[in-house]
Every structure is written in C-alpha cells, then in structure tokens.
C-alpha cells in the first residue's frame, strides 16, 4: 500500500480544518440570522404593517360606508319614496350630487316598492329575481344585515368590476323602502392595495368571510379564487375563517417559498385582511452573504494552503540541500556522492559508460589554518571548491570528502580522468590570493593539490574504488605532492 506523503497529509488536514471552520461559522451565522429575521417579521414587521394598513384601509373604506349610511337615513330619499317616486329627475340629481361630492364611481337606489333601479343617469331597469344580475339584491335583503360590501359588475357602466356598499333604507316603522349605496371601482381599491404593497413591501389582499378574494392586485383572482384553493394556505383555511378577534399568524409553503402571513378580520367591512411576506425573499441578502462568506473562505483557504505549500517547499528544498550538500563549500557531500555513484553504476550496466574516481587533498593546508586561522582556511576551501566545480563537467559530481579532501565522480575513462586531475592540479597551483603577502610569507601562495585516480571495474563498489584512489593519492603525497597518480 502506497504511503501518503506527510506534506500532503498536512495540507489535506489544513484544508479540511479551514473549510470546516469557514463553513461551520457561516452556517451558524446564517441560522442565527434566519432565526432573527423570522422573529423580526413575526413579532415586529408584520404586526406593524398590519396595524398601519388596517388603520388606513378602514379609514378609506369607512367613508363610503358612512356616506351610504347617511343616504339610508336621508329624509329626502325616504320622503321621495313615500310620496310615490313621482319625479325621477329629483332622485337622479340626488344620486349625481352624492357621486360628485364624494368622488365615487357610482351611486344608486333600488325601490322595494316599485322594484325600480335608479342611478346617476336615471332609471336603469326593473329588477327581477330571475335576473342573475339582480340576485345580489334579494340575497342581501334575506341576510337581514344593515349593510354589506359586495364586489360585482356594474351594469350601468359597461360591467366594470365595482365594490358596492349596499345599505338598507327603512321607514320609521322599520318597513323596507329599498336599498341605496355607492360604488367604488375595484381598480381604484386595487391601486390603494398596490400602494400598500409598494410602501411596505408586503403582499396585501382582502377576502370575504368565506375566503373568496374581493380585492387583489391580480384582478383575475377577484371573485374567482378562494384561499381554500391556494397551495399551503388551504391547510389553514378553517382556522382563518373562524374569524378570531385578534390578528393571527400563519406559516405556509407556496411555490417553494416560505410565506409568513398575518390575518385580521375587519368587522366594519365584514372582510378579512391578509398581509404576507416571503421569508425566503427576506433571507435573500443573508443567503448572498452566506455564499459570499463561503466563497471568501474557500479563496482564503486556498491562499493559506498555497502559501503553506510554498513555505514547505522552500524549507524542504533547503533541507534537501543540507542533506546532499556540504554546508561550508556548497558542493556535494558523501551522501550525494553515494547516490550519484549508484546512478552511474546503473548507467554502466546499460551502456557500459566508464566511471572514474579522483581523490584530492590540499598540500600545505595545515599551515594555512595554523598561521592564518580557520576562518581564512574555510575561505580557502570555498575558493578551491568553486574553482574545481567550474573546471569539471556539469554531469560530474564534486564532493567534499572531509577536511581539505575532495572526491570527484566522473563518467570518464582513467586516462581522461587523469587529464582532468592534471587540469585541477594546475588550477589550484595557479590560484591567486589578492590579499596574500600583507603580513609577510603567506602559506596560501604555496598551496597545491595532490590527486589519486582510479577507474571502475566489474564488481567494484564505491568503497573499493575510494580505497584504490586513496592509495594513488597516498603515493602522490609520498612523492612530495602537487602531482597526479593513477591506480
């Protein structure tokens, strides 16, 4: 089984920790924000919005109710009916004045005595229980209520959808004289509701006590759609239509959105006011912040991992250099020489490429250390190593074997290696020391190098080659140094 690189394990662990930290904190913050938004909407936003809309809407719609109420108690209207409805121009003028004075869409009176429908243009028709447009009148009379709000088409005005405020007219004895009232264009009421929606950024609509929509920004739903037909909301229909006295809050899912709903019964209108807000939409900014945080976290994690990788690689490279390079001179050390020798043996086994070893030792280096000190001695070793390194081929391996002793592994035959050793000898002999002679005789000027050369034979090891090269080096030293010997 292949082992995972420790560096990779560290990077993976670091990435997991950072990502979990960013994601974990982001999820916690998002959930806290979500709970706060939910609480804010239910406890503050919706109740405040409901209260404002309720106050404004009841004030707006109470005015036509009051006008219709005053019409129902108007002595002129009652006297005109009781006098036999003789002059229709009087009732027409009366209704027109009501319309103009209060800015209503229409005003009307239906006589219970003659079944005549009067409006601002005069006599409209005689109502009949069999006429579907007149059913509302008989239904209202049968309800026994003093007044009602009813959404219907206005026959007198090209069947424009109208909100009628119907009010009963009775004489002093309570006998029914008819029904009077005024009408508002549903489009005008819808504009009022749309104004609420734009101001408060909530969905606002009204239904009757049976849940049938009466006012909505979407006119196609009016008198057509019931809350019992809406997904999610239909589950709460029974509770909503129980008409609780105080505002009630509900939550439901519609089109994959979580809707928070506040419902209030308006007794003056006998309608229900609905104010909704999408929690999903309200959380859009929080979700954007959540994903922005996740994205920033991923980018930050990637940057941290990249910097960590660069730092690890940098220090790993330094460590690797320390492992294979001599700290003082910067050339290869024994370990590097051993590694390169193994590679050279492999190359020899494949294409018989020759291998030679040159062992080198400085002559007179002890005097440099003794007379000039180890700091100067170290500088000498660096300069000698640099000079030899520049003189050999890039494919050769120059290593510091210890002290002032060097070894060179070269893919050359023994003759070529001997020539190479001779060039190195001359190079060291001719090295210039600019600061030499300042304090008299300088041992660096007498510095030379002795070399021992040997070549690889079948079955040789690095140790055996080094012994042979070392023997040749010993003979070079024994003969006075500054020369090359082969073995």
Key traits:
6-stranded antiparallel beta sheet; 13 helices; rod-shaped; alpha+beta; 487 residues
Explain what you see:
By secondary structure, this protein is an alpha+beta fold. 49% of the residues lie in helices and 22% in strands. The protein has helices at 6-72, 75-82, 88-102, 135-143, 186-200, 237-240, 279-282, 284-324, 334-351, 365-372, 374-391, 414-429, 462-478; strands at residues 106-111, 116-119, 122-126, 147-154, 160-170, 176-185, 203-207, 213-215, 248-254, 257-266, 271-278, 356-363, 397-402, 405-410, 448-455, 484-486. The protein has a 6-stranded antiparallel sheet, sandwiched between helices. A 5-stranded antiparallel sheet has the order 8-7-11-10-9. The radius of gyration is 53 Å and the shape is rod-shaped. The two termini are 47 Å apart. The model has no long low-confidence stretch (mean pLDDT 87).
